[in-house]
Amino acid sequence: MNFPKTRPRRLRKNPYIRDMVKETALSINDFIYPIFVTYEKEKKPISSMPGIYQLPISEAKKEAKEAFDLGIRAVILFGIPQKKDELGSCAYDENGVIVNAIKEIKNFVPELIVAADACFCEYTSHGHCGVVDNNGYLLNDETLELLKKEAYVYAKAGADIIAPSGMIDGMVKAIRDALDENNFKDTIIMAYSAKYASSFYGPFREAAESAPAFGDRKSYQMDYSNALEALKEIELDINEGADIIMVKPALSYLDIIKMAKERFAFMPLAGYSVSGEYSMIKAAAKLGWIDEKKVVDEVLTSIKRAGCDIIITYFAKEWLKNNS
Ligand code: PBG
């Protein structure tokens, strides 16, 4: 392979040739669109995430339908409950906001795949992702018991996918057991397997009103200095029965995505392009410093190129509007 016989530019001569040799292309099947559902009656904008809202169930239904009509095949739901307590009891309340949202959305748009984030930070008064002891330390096995209840009520409401995001040891096994014991053998588990303690979640915590009241999440979410540890977390989740694995965030973690895909090629891999990734692009675009449409396509393509089969992104609707 030598110049002048080999001239890579031959294959870049015009758009048709470039398209013909394109290695990665995003498609409508790649996306999961996050929706924040609130118990309140009014739709509320999230200041740090322009274009994203906390939606009452009646509006969330419409949003889900609009997404589906654009071509989006899956949404993931996050809930803002009517009240928070020490145990996050609204998360597993049979009449909780997400339970009702799942029922209404599945009823309104039956073909849309509905995933439910299974965690407690939006539901606890202290904002941590489970039960904490007097020192504020997250109690692992006690939290698993609550997660089982949460997964059960979401599956019963009709969720297609349960997505545990708390980085609790044993969470996938606990949920699989709870689902199987209750005859939800076909409910899918998408595990936030390698979820890092990241400052890119900042805007989400405004959106979901889920910032921890004290401390941080470093005793359960991963240290961003670590790569190999992600393989351990992912392998544990696969062995516990995860159907889909996830790396989160995405953009600063493309190396982890690539490693995960190489090592576990047989597993569908999701990448969560998180709130901070969204807000940074929105902010720079608002200042006129970048071309939003092009940057969004470049970023999402890079996540797919790194190895993701599924991309969870707040830009899903926008990308489809710009590319169909
Ligand atoms: C709940 C959860 C979080 C995100 C998804 N699920 C927040 C957190 O761990 O603090 C973040 C998503 C985003 O930033 O877009 N545990």
Chart the SSEs and their pairings.
Blueprint (H helix, E strand, L loop, with lengths): L14 H6 L10 E8 L5 E2 L7 E4 H14 L3 E7 L16 H12 L4 E6 L21 H18 L3 E4 L6 H11 L6 E8 L6 H6 L20 H13 L3 E5 L5 H10 L5 E5 L1 H12 L5 H15 L3 E4 L2 H8 L1
The structure holds ligand PBG.
The site of ligand PBG has 12 residues, from helix 6.
Which radius of gyration do the C-alpha atoms yield? 20 Å
Taking the alpha carbons of the first and last residues, their distance comes to 38 Å
> What is the number of helices?
11
What binds here, in terms of ligands, is: ligand PBG
Share in β-strands: 15-25%
Shape: globular
Per DSSP E runs of 2 or more residues, the count of β-strands stands at 10
Main beta sheet strand tally, sense and closure: 8 strands, parallel, barrel
Helical coverage, percent range: 25-40%
How confident overall, as mean pLDDT?
97
Structural class: alpha/beta
Order of adjacent strands in the largest pleated sheet: 1-4-5-6-7-8-9-10
Reading the helices and strands in chain order gives HEEEHEHEHEHEHHEHEHHEH
Uncertain ranges: none
3D structure, described in words:
By secondary structure, this protein is of the alpha/beta class. 39% of the residues lie in helices and 16% in strands. The chain contains eleven helices and ten strands. The protein has helices at 15-20, 57-70, 97-108, 140-157, 171-181, 202-207, 228-240, 254-263, 275-286, 292-306, 316-323; strands spanning 31-38, 44-45, 53-56, 74-80, 113-118, 161-164, 188-195, 244-248, 269-273, 310-313. An eight-stranded parallel beta barrel has the order 1-4-5-6-7-8-9-10, surrounded by eight helices. Helix 5 (171-181) links the parallel strand 6 (161-164) and strand 7. Helix 7 (228-240) crosses helix 8 (254-263). The chain is globular and about 70 Å long. The two termini are 38 Å apart. The mean pLDDT is 97. Ligand PBG binds at residues 117, 119, 121, 129, 165-166, 201, 204-205, 210, 274-275.
